Amino acid sequence: MTEGAESLVKLMLLSGGSGKRLWPLSNDSRSKQFLRVLPAPGGGSESMLQRLWRQVGEAGLRESAHILTGRDQAGMIAAQIGAAAPLILEPERRDTFAAILLAAAYAAGLPGAAPDETVIIMPIDPCVDGDFFRTLALLDSALAASRYPLVLVGVHPTHPSEKYGYIVIDEHAGEHTGGHACPLRTVSRFVEKPSAGEAARLIGEGALWNCGVFAGRLSFYTGLLAKRGLPADYAGLLRRYAGLPKISFDYEVAERLPSLGVLPYAGRWKDLGTWNTLTEEMRETVSGPGRVSADSIGTHIVNELDIPVNVLGVPGLIVAASPDGILVADKEASPRIKEMLDEDAPPMYAERQWGWQRVLERGGSAEDRRATVSRIAVHAGCTLPLRCEAQCEYVWVVTSGSGEAVLENRVHPLGPGDALRLPSGTPHSLRTHGGIRLVETAFPL
C-alpha cells in the first residue's frame, strides 16, 4: 500500500460528461473515459476508466474508492471494470456541485463514517502515474496541519495551455508544512482558461493548473448540505436532486471560501479531453482498418467502422470514424468540433454491461413507418434484459453464435441464420453461453 494510503478514508471518483471534443467516438451514451484507445500493460488497449481503476488498485486505494456516475453509465462501467465496482448513482447530470454533495451524503451513510474523515474528490479520466497517488496520500495530513477547510491539488504547468483553469498562489501567505514535508500553499484566486499570453504570465508568477481534486473533512461537505437546508442522507438528497443548481463545485464552493490551500504536484498529469492530447498517449498511429502514408507525419486514424480509411500526404490530422460520424481535422483545431455538433442527434453506438448495440439505419416516427436496423452483440454468459414495448415490433436474424430467446415464457433456440419475430407487447429477452450476434429490425406501430 502507498505510504499514507490508509488515511484516505474515502476516494470519490467522478465519472460523468460526454467529452464532445472527442466526437465521433464520444457521445452522450459513451463518454471519453470509456474509449479503449490507450496502451494497456502487456499489450492491447484500455480505456481511461480501466487505466485509472487499475492504478487505484496498484496504489492500494481500491477499498476506499467509490465511483459517482449517472444511471446511464452504470452498465458500461460494470462492463469495463466489473460489476463489483462500488457505484454511487446520480439520477441526472447536474454538474460537479450536485454530484459532490451526493457523494458526501452517501459517504456519511456508510458504516463507521466519522465527521473527521477525509473525503477526496477527483475526476476519473486524468493521465497520471504513481506519483500522483502518493501526493493524494498527503492530503489527509495536509488538512490536519492547516486551518483550511478544503485543500486542492495544483499541477506545475509544462506549457501555457488555454484549456485549463489556473490556481494563483498567495505569495504573501508563505508555505505551510502539512506533514511529510508537504509544501502546502494558500490559494489567492482562480483564473479559468486564460489566453496563451495570460497563461504564460500566470506561469511566470508560479500559478498551477487546477486538476479538479478537492480534499476536505466529511463534516465540511455535510456542512454544505446543512447550510443549504438539504438532507444529509443519501435517499433524502436523491429526492431533492432535481432542484439542485447546475453549477460546478469550483464556482459554487471553492471560489467563495475565504481561504483554502493547494498542494503543488510536479509529476505527470494530463487531461485527455481533446484529440491532440489523446493521440499523444496512443501506441499506434492507426486503430482499426486503414493506413497512413509515411509523409503524413503526426496523423492518426481511429476507425470503428468496417471500411478502411487511408490518408496520403497530409500531416498533423486526426481522422476519427464511428457510427456517429466521421471527423477529419487538424489536431490543433479539433476541439472546435463542439461548435458543429447537433446536440439533439441520438447516439448511434452504445456499450452495455451485456454487450453493445450499433445502429445501422435509424427509422423515423410511426407516421412514416421507417424501421430502425441495428447490430447487437450479447457477450458470452450475458443476457439481453427483459423488455416489452407496446408500440414496436422486432425481428431478429442471428449472424453468428448461439443463444436462447425467451418469448412469452417459451424458449426458442437460436443459431446462425435463424430468424425470430417478436410481436409488440410481448415480453422477451435473450440469453447466451458463448456469445451471439444478430441484426435487429424494429418496426414502429
UniProtKB/TrEMBL annotation:
- Pfam family example for this protein? NTP_transferase
Q: Name one GO biological process term.
A: GDP-mannose biosynthetic process
Report the coiled-coil segments: none
Q: Where are the transmembrane segments?
A: none
What is a GO molecular function of this protein? Answer: mannose-1-phosphate guanylyltransferase (GTP) activity
User: Which InterPro entries does the record associate with it?
Assistant: Mannose-6P_isomerase_type2 (IPR051161), NTP_transferase_dom (IPR005835), Nucleotide-diphossugar_trans (IPR029044), RmlC-like_jellyroll (IPR014710), RmlC_Cupin_sf (IPR011051)
- What region holds the Nucleotidyl transferase domain? 12-284
Question: What name is this protein filed under?
Answer: Cupin domain-containing protein
Provide the species name.
Paenibacillus spiritus
